[in-house]
Amino acid sequence: MQDTPKGSRLHISLFGRRNVGKSSLINALTNQEIALVSDVAGTTTDPVYKAMEILPLGPVMLIDTAGLDDEGALGELRAKKSLEVLEKTDVTLLVVDSTSGFGDYEKRIFLLSFEKNIPVVIVFTKKDLIDEEQRKQLLISLKKQLLAIAHSLSSNSLDSGSPSILNIDNTPALFVSSTTKGGIPALKQHLCNVKPTERLPSAIVGDLLSPGDMMLLVVPIDEAAPKGRLILPQVQTIRDILDHDCLTVVCKESELKKALAALKEPPKLVVTDSQAFREVAKDLPSDIPLTSFSILMARYKGDLLSLARGAKAIETLVPCDKILIAEACTHHQQSDDLGKIKIPHWLSQMVGGELKIDFSHGSDYPDNLDEYKLIVHCGGCMLNRKEMLHRISLTKKMNIPIVNYGVLIAAVHGILPRALRPLGIDYETLLSF
Q: Pseudo-torsion of CA 108, 110, 116, 118, nearest 10°?
């Protein structure tokens, strides 16, 4: 479970005011002292990410955020960073101090989560500091506030019987004590029943196959290949093929012809690293379906139709146009780096001149997207589906075209229609809508 990739984990974010017990709750949930706990308000400053396994829930990414009521100019920046975490949150744990109750700060997070279609679990901490009658009054007050919110939004989805709001037994919140561990098992059990709105599809490629089908994967071993291992999308694809009772052959692009000749019948599908697209397409008979790991990841993690439509914008670029190349991870740049070197070179060749190119890395994603004629994004293997879809949605709202590496590379080499066909997408028909 600890080897589960970050982007495949359920992201559970804890929000609340300072000193409500968010860090203590993380320690109680994981049964480990992994979060710094102090009586000093504002101990947690920046969002803290911790990959953990919570039984019986499974592999999760717990995100501890700074207090929403942090003060001063620096405090406002910390609160802003906390709110940005919502864009990658699958489940919001809204942590409320039992001794102070549900107020304006909590209401703000509740509404923001609702607007982003994120399930909310309200957790009252410090259960051991209040009695049964006080808990009863807190629930009565909370129900009234939730119904008032529902009325103001004119929405039935916040009704007191809504499973997206309620936790167990028709109550709108759970009570826990991180000190005595009271209520922690019930919270874990409830989290198992919460249904995030943006979960990963059930398969990367296996849903396109039948048991016993043979797939051929082309994996270049070049300067950018990690020493002694495969990159994450390749490993995930192999595992997905095995999980669907199919067969796989893996070879380098230089061995493709030999691999095809060794097979008794053509493979059901060939998947290549995008950088070898042109060479593989040249050596592969046209009647054998072909796509790339990056295009499969676009389908798995994001919105492949939007990314494919964005490829049309490549044809409209002219010298000096401004584009953004965004990578979700940071890595040591190679002499033939795909994002820094190859893609800018291919695009410059296509437009007949130099482009103005900006780069972003990791969790940083610029606010000035409207300045760009095109966004070129990596495959997003280090992002969860929630955040990848958020990034795509931002560009759609601004009417800025976006592609990912695999879609762009297939487009610049003139083989995008062929690369989309195995996934049931006719490129020309797609562009007509």
A: 150
- pLDDT tens-digit readout, 111-167: 999 888 899 999 999 999 999 999 999 999 998 888 888 777 765 444 444 434 443
Using CA of residue 344, residue 348, residue 351, residue 353, what is the dihedral sign?
A: positive
Distance CA 388, CA 316 (A): 25
- For the chain, how long is the longest CA-to-CA vector? 77
> Which region, left, alpha or beta, applies to residue 34 given φ > 0 means left and ψ of -120 to 50 means alpha?
alpha
CA 372 to chain centroid, in Å, comes to 23
Q: 3-class DSSP state for residue 415? A: coil
C-alpha span between 28 and 30 (Å, rounded)? 6
Local confidence band at 412 (pLDDT 50, 70, 90 cut-offs): very high
Which tokens in the block code for residue 40? 């000093």
Q: Evaluate whether 365 touches 372 at the Cβ level (below 8 Å).
A: no
Instruction: For each of the domains in the chain, give its residue range(s) and CATH number, in order of start.
Output: 6-193 (3.40.50.300), 206-295 (3.40.50.11420), 304-431 (3.40.50.11410)
Cβ pair 324, 375 in contact under 8 A: yes
Q: Tell me the sheet residues that pair with 251.
A: 218
Q: How many CA atoms lie within 13 A of 370 on its CB side?
A: 2
| Beta carbons within 8 Å of 216's beta carbon, 6+ residues apart | 248, 249, 250, 251, 256, 259, 260, 263, 267, 269, 270, 271
- Per-residue tokens: 83: 């709110």
Instruction: Tell the residue number behind the tokens 């829930």, with chain if given.
Output: 57
Beta bridge partners of 125: 97
Token pair in block for residue 411: 């487009």
- Higher-pLDDT residue of 11 and 160 is 11
Q: Omega before 56 cis (within 30°)?
A: yes
Q: Of 394, 332, 392, 386, whose CA–CA distance to 361 is shortest?
A: 332
Angle at the Cα of 410 (from 288 to 255), degrees rounded to 5? 50
Distance CA 355, CA 346 (A): 11
**What is the band of 410 on the pLDDT scale with cuts at 50, 70, 90?**
very high
Report yes or no: 390 and 358 within 8 Å, Cβ to Cβ: no
**Residue the block writes with tokens 């207090």:** 67
Name the helix (H) or strand (E) containing 10. Answer: strand 10-15
Asked if 238 and 205 touch (Cβ cutoff 8 Å), the reply is no
Tokens of 26: 């993380």
* Element containing residue 386 per DSSP (H, E): helix 385-397
